[in-house]
Amino acid sequence: MYGEKVANARPDELNYDQYEKKKYDHDIVRVIPGHEEVHKQIPRLLLGINQKKPKILELGIGTGITADIILRRFPKAQYIGIDFSKNMLVGAQQRLEPYKPTLICADYATCKWPIENDVIVSVISIHHQETDRDKKKLFKKIYRHLAAGGIFIFGDLVTFEDKNTAAFNEALHFHHLVENASSRKNLTEWAFHHKYLNCLAPVEKQLQWLQQTGFEKVRLIYHRYNTVLIVANKGHL
Protein backbone atom coordinates (compact mmCIF):
# COMPACT_ATOMS: atom_id res chain seq x y z
CA MET A 1 0.00 0.00 0.00
CA TYR A 2 2.78 2.43 0.87
CA GLY A 3 5.48 1.35 -1.59
CA GLU A 4 8.94 2.79 -0.93
CA LYS A 5 9.15 4.46 2.47
CA VAL A 6 9.87 8.12 1.77
CA ALA A 7 8.04 9.69 4.70
CA ASN A 8 10.14 9.20 7.83
CA ALA A 9 7.32 7.56 9.79
CA ARG A 10 4.44 5.19 9.19
CA PRO A 11 1.00 6.51 10.11
CA ASP A 12 0.78 4.17 13.09
CA GLU A 13 4.06 5.62 14.40
CA LEU A 14 2.59 9.12 14.61
CA ASN A 15 0.90 9.96 17.89
CA TYR A 16 -2.16 11.50 16.25
CA ASP A 17 -2.99 8.54 13.99
CA GLN A 18 -5.06 6.94 16.75
CA TYR A 19 -6.81 10.15 17.77
CA GLU A 20 -10.51 10.62 17.24
CA LYS A 21 -11.21 13.36 14.70
CA LYS A 22 -12.56 15.75 17.34
CA LYS A 23 -9.43 15.41 19.51
CA TYR A 24 -7.05 15.77 16.56
CA ASP A 25 -8.85 18.84 15.24
CA HIS A 26 -8.75 20.44 18.69
CA ASP A 27 -5.08 19.62 19.27
CA ILE A 28 -3.63 20.52 15.87
CA VAL A 29 -5.05 24.04 16.01
CA ARG A 30 -3.66 24.56 19.52
CA VAL A 31 -0.21 22.99 19.21
CA ILE A 32 0.89 24.25 15.77
CA PRO A 33 1.88 27.92 16.09
CA GLY A 34 0.08 30.03 13.52
CA HIS A 35 -2.25 27.24 12.39
CA GLU A 36 -5.32 29.49 12.32
CA GLU A 37 -3.41 32.39 10.76
CA VAL A 38 -2.10 30.18 7.94
CA HIS A 39 -5.61 29.02 7.14
CA LYS A 40 -6.97 32.56 7.17
CA GLN A 41 -4.47 33.42 4.43
CA ILE A 42 -5.39 30.57 2.09
CA PRO A 43 -8.68 31.96 0.66
CA ARG A 44 -6.86 35.17 -0.29
CA LEU A 45 -4.24 33.15 -2.17
CA LEU A 46 -7.01 31.57 -4.25
CA LEU A 47 -8.50 34.84 -5.51
CA GLY A 48 -6.75 34.45 -8.86
CA ILE A 49 -8.48 31.13 -9.59
CA ASN A 50 -11.32 31.94 -11.98
CA GLN A 51 -12.68 28.47 -12.78
CA LYS A 52 -15.85 27.28 -11.04
CA LYS A 53 -14.54 23.71 -11.03
CA PRO A 54 -10.77 23.96 -10.56
CA LYS A 55 -8.67 20.83 -10.20
CA ILE A 56 -7.21 20.85 -6.71
CA LEU A 57 -4.85 18.26 -5.21
CA GLU A 58 -4.06 18.19 -1.50
CA LEU A 59 -1.03 16.32 -0.18
CA GLY A 60 -1.60 15.15 3.39
CA ILE A 61 -5.28 16.04 3.66
CA GLY A 62 -5.56 14.81 7.27
CA THR A 63 -9.08 15.28 8.62
CA GLY A 64 -9.92 17.84 5.94
CA ILE A 65 -9.39 21.10 7.84
CA THR A 66 -7.66 22.82 4.92
CA ALA A 67 -9.91 21.20 2.31
CA ASP A 68 -13.01 22.46 4.10
CA ILE A 69 -11.80 26.06 3.83
CA ILE A 70 -10.96 25.68 0.14
CA LEU A 71 -14.17 23.84 -0.75
CA ARG A 72 -16.29 26.56 0.83
CA ARG A 73 -14.76 28.84 -1.79
CA PHE A 74 -14.96 26.26 -4.60
CA PRO A 75 -17.77 23.82 -3.70
CA LYS A 76 -17.74 22.27 -7.19
CA ALA A 77 -13.98 21.81 -7.36
CA GLN A 78 -12.51 18.56 -8.61
CA TYR A 79 -10.82 17.91 -5.28
CA ILE A 80 -8.47 15.02 -4.61
CA GLY A 81 -6.92 14.49 -1.18
CA ILE A 82 -4.13 12.01 -0.44
CA ASP A 83 -3.09 10.82 3.01
CA PHE A 84 -1.33 7.70 4.26
CA SER A 85 -3.46 7.49 7.41
CA LYS A 86 -6.77 5.64 7.10
CA ASN A 87 -7.88 7.15 10.39
CA MET A 88 -7.30 10.69 9.15
CA LEU A 89 -9.20 9.96 5.93
CA VAL A 90 -12.22 8.74 7.90
CA GLY A 91 -12.30 12.16 9.54
CA ALA A 92 -11.90 13.91 6.18
CA GLN A 93 -14.75 11.92 4.68
CA GLN A 94 -17.04 12.90 7.54
CA ARG A 95 -16.15 16.58 7.36
CA LEU A 96 -16.22 16.89 3.57
CA GLU A 97 -19.25 14.71 2.83
CA PRO A 98 -21.26 17.56 1.20
CA TYR A 99 -18.50 18.14 -1.36
CA LYS A 100 -17.81 14.52 -2.37
CA PRO A 101 -14.03 14.83 -2.83
CA THR A 102 -11.91 11.91 -3.99
CA LEU A 103 -9.87 10.59 -1.05
CA ILE A 104 -6.88 8.30 -1.59
CA CYS A 105 -5.00 6.35 1.08
CA ALA A 106 -1.40 6.30 -0.12
CA ASP A 107 2.06 7.80 0.35
CA TYR A 108 1.83 10.87 -1.88
CA ALA A 109 5.57 10.84 -2.53
CA THR A 110 5.34 7.54 -4.40
CA CYS A 111 1.76 7.21 -5.71
CA LYS A 112 0.45 8.53 -9.03
CA TRP A 113 -1.22 11.94 -9.17
CA PRO A 114 -3.66 13.52 -11.61
CA ILE A 115 -2.02 15.94 -14.02
CA GLU A 116 -2.77 19.57 -14.90
CA ASN A 117 -3.90 20.64 -11.43
CA ASP A 118 -4.84 24.28 -10.96
CA VAL A 119 -3.85 24.17 -7.30
CA ILE A 120 -1.68 21.84 -5.26
CA VAL A 121 -1.79 22.45 -1.52
CA SER A 122 -0.01 20.90 1.44
CA VAL A 123 -0.24 22.13 5.02
CA ILE A 124 1.87 20.69 7.87
CA SER A 125 2.91 17.54 6.04
CA ILE A 126 5.96 17.77 3.77
CA HIS A 127 8.36 18.03 6.73
CA HIS A 128 7.89 14.26 7.08
CA GLN A 129 9.82 13.74 3.83
CA GLU A 130 12.96 12.39 5.41
CA THR A 131 15.82 14.02 3.50
CA ASP A 132 16.53 17.19 1.55
CA ARG A 133 16.71 15.03 -1.56
CA ASP A 134 13.21 13.69 -0.86
CA LYS A 135 11.82 17.20 -0.46
CA LYS A 136 13.48 18.46 -3.66
CA LYS A 137 12.18 15.43 -5.54
CA LEU A 138 8.67 16.13 -4.25
CA PHE A 139 8.86 19.80 -5.30
CA LYS A 140 9.75 18.68 -8.83
CA LYS A 141 6.80 16.29 -8.84
CA ILE A 142 4.51 19.10 -7.69
CA TYR A 143 5.76 21.38 -10.47
CA ARG A 144 5.23 18.70 -13.14
CA HIS A 145 1.66 18.07 -12.01
CA LEU A 146 0.56 21.70 -11.98
CA ALA A 147 -1.13 23.25 -14.99
CA ALA A 148 0.48 26.30 -16.57
CA GLY A 149 -0.46 29.24 -14.34
CA GLY A 150 -1.15 26.91 -11.41
CA ILE A 151 -0.18 27.62 -7.81
CA PHE A 152 1.40 25.60 -5.01
CA ILE A 153 0.27 26.59 -1.51
CA PHE A 154 2.77 25.26 1.00
CA GLY A 155 2.32 25.61 4.76
CA ASP A 156 4.79 23.70 6.89
CA LEU A 157 7.20 23.44 9.78
CA VAL A 158 10.74 24.56 8.95
CA THR A 159 14.04 25.54 10.51
CA PHE A 160 16.55 28.23 9.53
CA GLU A 161 20.09 28.32 8.15
CA ASP A 162 21.37 30.66 10.86
CA LYS A 163 21.83 28.56 14.00
CA ASN A 164 20.87 31.38 16.37
CA THR A 165 17.64 32.03 14.44
CA ALA A 166 16.93 28.30 14.35
CA ALA A 167 17.50 27.92 18.10
CA PHE A 168 15.37 30.96 18.94
CA ASN A 169 12.39 29.82 16.87
CA GLU A 170 12.71 26.24 18.13
CA ALA A 171 12.56 27.51 21.71
CA LEU A 172 9.46 29.58 20.92
CA HIS A 173 7.84 26.55 19.27
CA PHE A 174 8.35 24.41 22.39
CA HIS A 175 7.18 27.28 24.61
CA HIS A 176 4.00 27.40 22.52
CA LEU A 177 3.54 23.65 23.11
CA VAL A 178 3.94 24.10 26.87
CA GLU A 179 1.45 26.98 26.91
CA ASN A 180 -1.18 25.25 24.78
CA ALA A 181 -1.03 21.52 25.49
CA SER A 182 -4.15 20.25 27.24
CA SER A 183 -2.33 17.80 29.53
CA ARG A 184 1.11 16.40 30.35
CA LYS A 185 0.38 13.40 28.12
CA ASN A 186 -0.65 15.70 25.29
CA LEU A 187 2.49 17.83 25.73
CA THR A 188 4.73 14.76 25.77
CA GLU A 189 3.18 13.37 22.59
CA TRP A 190 3.53 16.57 20.58
CA ALA A 191 6.95 17.48 21.97
CA PHE A 192 8.21 13.98 21.09
CA HIS A 193 6.69 14.32 17.64
CA HIS A 194 8.41 17.65 17.02
CA LYS A 195 11.78 16.60 18.46
CA TYR A 196 12.08 13.09 17.01
CA LEU A 197 9.66 12.68 14.09
CA ASN A 198 9.83 16.01 12.26
CA CYS A 199 12.53 16.41 9.58
CA LEU A 200 12.78 20.17 9.24
CA ALA A 201 14.69 21.80 6.39
CA PRO A 202 15.79 25.46 6.39
CA VAL A 203 13.15 27.71 4.86
CA GLU A 204 15.84 29.58 2.92
CA LYS A 205 16.87 26.37 1.16
CA GLN A 206 13.28 25.36 0.43
CA LEU A 207 12.56 28.73 -1.19
CA GLN A 208 15.67 28.22 -3.31
CA TRP A 209 14.69 24.66 -4.25
CA LEU A 210 11.28 25.85 -5.42
CA GLN A 211 12.90 28.52 -7.57
CA GLN A 212 15.38 26.03 -9.00
CA THR A 213 12.52 23.67 -9.81
CA GLY A 214 11.12 26.29 -12.17
CA PHE A 215 8.47 28.17 -10.21
CA GLU A 216 8.22 31.67 -11.61
CA LYS A 217 7.31 33.45 -8.39
CA VAL A 218 8.01 32.14 -4.89
CA ARG A 219 6.89 34.14 -1.85
CA LEU A 220 7.09 33.69 1.90
CA ILE A 221 3.65 34.87 3.00
CA TYR A 222 3.66 34.16 6.73
CA HIS A 223 6.09 33.12 9.47
CA ARG A 224 5.63 32.34 13.14
CA TYR A 225 8.34 30.38 15.00
CA ASN A 226 8.81 27.15 12.98
CA THR A 227 5.62 27.62 10.95
CA VAL A 228 5.63 29.24 7.51
CA LEU A 229 3.29 29.72 4.58
CA ILE A 230 4.79 29.85 1.08
CA VAL A 231 3.09 30.28 -2.28
CA ALA A 232 4.78 29.37 -5.56
CA ASN A 233 3.38 30.18 -8.99
CA LYS A 234 4.00 28.15 -12.13
CA GLY A 235 4.32 30.43 -15.13
CA HIS A 236 2.00 30.44 -18.13
CA LEU A 237 3.21 28.88 -21.36
What would your notes on this structure say?
Residues 56-150 form the Methyltransferase domain. InterPro entries: Methyltransf_25, SAM-dependent_MTases_sf. Keywords: Methyltransferase, Transferase. It comes from Candidatus Iainarchaeum sp. Pfam families: Methyltransf_25. With 237 residues, the protein is of the alpha/beta class. The protein has a single domain, classed as Rossmann fold (3-Layer(aba) Sandwich). The chain has 8 helices and 7 strands; from the N terminus they run H-H-E-H-E-H-E-E-H-E-H-H-H-E-E. The chain has helices at 21-31, 35-45, 65-73, 86-95, 132-144, 163-180, 184-197, 203-213; strands at residues 55-59, 78-83, 102-105, 117-123, 146-157, 217-224, 227-233. Strands 3-2-1-4-5-7-6 form a 7-stranded mixed beta sheet, sandwiched between helices. A hairpin with a 2-residue loop joins strand 6 and strand 7. Helix 5 (132-144) runs parallel beside helix 8. The longest helix is centred in the C-terminal third of the chain and has 18 residues, at 163-180. It is globular and about 45 Å long.
Structural class estimated from helices and strands: alpha/beta
What is the name of the CATH superfamily? Vaccinia Virus protein VP39
| Count of strand segments | 7
Straight-line distance between termini: 36 Å
Mean pLDDT value: 89
Tell me about the largest β-sheet. 7 strands, mixed
Q: In which order are the strands of the major sheet placed?
A: 3-2-1-4-5-7-6
Morphology? globular
Q: How do the SSEs run, as a string of H and E?
A: HHEHEHEEHEHHHEE
Total tally of structural domains: 1
Helix content: 40-55%
Percent strand equals 15-25%
CATH fold topology: Rossmann fold
Rg of Cα set: 17 Å
What CATH architecture do you see?
Answer: 3-Layer(aba) Sandwich
What is the class in the CATH system?
A: Alpha Beta
**Which runs of at least 5 residues are low in confidence (pLDDT < 50)?**
1-5
Number of DSSP helical runs:
8
GO biological process, one term: methylation
Protein name: Methyltransferase domain-containing protein
InterPro entries: Methyltransf_25, SAM-dependent_MTases_sf
Keywords: Methyltransferase, Transferase
